[in-house]
Write a structure and sequence with these properties.
flat; mainly alpha; 0% strand; 70% helix
Length: 114
């Protein structure tokens, strides 16, 4: 093997420019999602059925948030120090978001009754 074969080649300026442009396009100009275009992606592992009503979505989110909070609070009992503080913060954040979801559900009920 010669020295030229073992030397790593540095990317050209145009290659770096193209990579930078792809990265910027990915974050700043995303392609429309399959949901927005009306198509579903076969590679999508999970999705929410488009015909589920808002109240059902909020009720499920509320239950999930309660579960997250309970898991985190239980886990906090098993650790000490800063990790315990982080876990308790997650539990409290889930509790706060749960309150927001419950308020949204209350408003839906008022709208449905009125």
């Amino acid at each position: 093997m010669t020295t030229a074969e073992t030397k790593p080649t540095s990317p050209s300026s145009s290659t770096l420019d193209e990579a930078a442009q792809r990265a910027l396009d990915y974050y700043l100009n995303p392609k429309p999602t399959a949901e927005a275009s009306g198509k579903t992606q076969a590679s999508q592992l999970f999705m929410v059925a488009p015909d589920i009503d808002t109240e059902t979505l909020l009720a499920n989110a509320s239950e999930d948030l309660l579960s997250i909070s309970a898991i985190a609070a239980d886990l906090a009992d098993d650790v000490d120090g800063s990790r315990r503080s982080v876990i308790l913060a997650i539990s409290r954040m889930a509790d706060g978001v749960h309150l927001l979801v419950e308020r949204a559900m209350d408003r839906l009920e008022v709208q449905a009754a009125g």
